[in-house]
Specification:
Elements: E1 2-7, E2 23-27, H1 34-40, E3 50-53, E4 56-57, E5 73-77
Parallel strand pairs: 1-5
Antiparallel strand pairs: 1-2, 3-4, 3-5
């Protein structure tokens, strides 16, 4: 099935080649869980600070149970600081 991944800031280094700057269309197996997707790209729990699926926040403790579906958009941000 096709989904979209968006990795921002320092996580962009984990994106596969091609596509737009921070966004890629990828194919994944049916039934893939969000935690498995994150691990597939070697992103640690600490690095995956903010994770959204279709614009909705998914907390760390829910990522292992969240099953992705066709056309989901997964957006991941690292911890950020500002002032």
């Amino acid at each position: 099935m096709k989904i979209v991944i968006e990795f921002y800031a320092s996580l962009m280094k984990y994106l596969p080649p091609g596509g737009r700057r921070f966004r890629r269309d990828i194919k994944v197996d049916e039934g893939l869980k969000l935690k498995q997707l994150i691990e597939q790209y070697n992103i640690s729990d600490e690095e995956a600070h903010i994770v959204l699926v279709n614009g909705h926040f998914v907390a760390l403790e829910s990522r292992e149970d969240h099953v992705l579906v066709e056309d989901d958009v997964v957006s991941i941000w690292p911890p950020v600081a500002g002032g």
